[in-house]
Amino acid sequence: MKKLILALIVSLLTLTFIGCDDEETPVSPTPLPSNSLVKVVHASPDAPGVDLLVDNTIAGTNLTFPNNTGYLTVPSGTRNVKVNVTGTSSTVIEANLNLMKDVNYSVFAVNSVANIEAIVIEDDLTAPAQGKAHVRFVHLSPDAPAVDITLTDGTVVFGNKSFKEFTAFTPLDAGSYDLEVRVAGTTTVALDLPVISLEAGKIYTVFAKGFLSGNGAQQLGAEIIVNN
């Protein structure tokens, strides 16, 4: 009996050591790629259609004023971004953007074509509170003066914004609004914005577009982007 017990113990120890030898070294999981969301907006009134290249890879083609690409998923880090005249290698804007992980951006191509440039804005897409919408205003009319965005009774919603300036996303009650773009600090109405409908839970960018002195498609106006 003692010999049998001893044999069982030896067998168990042998299996234990074999089991230890067979254990594989834990493998660290491959980290998930980090990305950012980038929306490009063509806001240069007299510029032609453009192609968008990220690290020399085409990410969008024939983007025309005043349209946008929607959000594109782009690897985070330093990315080279080029805006080329559609179908050519003629670069009108080039910039190296440092994109942070899980951050959302809007890149606006702005100004007249002779002075075209880019402005980059981080987009806070935090969900609005119940019954609210989030709205921001971006002044992108090159020859328009500083403006106020007001209700028709003169109540200022966004005040005294000059070309290339912008507001933070601001909570407003969902509903329909009749707005006016006024020369800052005055009652002079440069542009009527009737019946702007804001849906609860939505996030909007309203930007002034075109030229104060423009005609047709290039005349002063406003464009609304739904960011979510």
Molecular structure report:
With 228 residues, the protein is mainly β. It has two domains: 33-123, Sandwich (Immunoglobulin-like), CATH 2.60.40.2890; 126-228, Immunoglobulin-like (Sandwich), CATH 2.60.40. The protein is built from one helix and 16 strands. It has one helix spanning 2-22; strands at residues 35-42, 50-54, 57-63, 68-75, 77-85, 91-99, 104-110, 117-123, 132-139, 147-151, 156-161, 170-173, 175-183, 189-198, 203-209, 221-226. The strands form four sheets. Strands 4-1-7-8 form a four-stranded mixed sheet, with no helix packed on it. Strands 3-2-5-6 form a four-stranded antiparallel sheet, with no helix packed on it. It has a four-stranded mixed sheet with strand order 12-9-15-16, with no helix packed on it. A hairpin with a 4-residue loop joins strand 10 (147-151) and strand 11. The longest helix has 21 residues, at 2-22. The chain is flat, with a radius of gyration of 28 Å. Residues 3-21 have low confidence and may be disordered.
Q: Can you summarize the main beta sheet?
A: 4 strands, mixed
Query: Ranges with pLDDT <50 over ≥5 residues?
Result: 3-21
Q: What is the count of β-strands?
A: 16
**Strand content bin:** over 45%
Tell me the number of structural domains.
2
Q: Please give the CATH architecture of the largest domain.
A: Sandwich
Shape label: flat
Element-level helix/strand string: HEEEEEEEEEEEEEEEE
Nearest-integer average pLDDT:
90
Overall SS class: mainly beta
Number of helices: 1
Which strand order do you get reading across the main beta sheet?
4-1-7-8
Radius of gyration: 28 Å
- Measured as a percent range, the helix fraction is under 10%
**First-to-last CA distance:** 77 Å
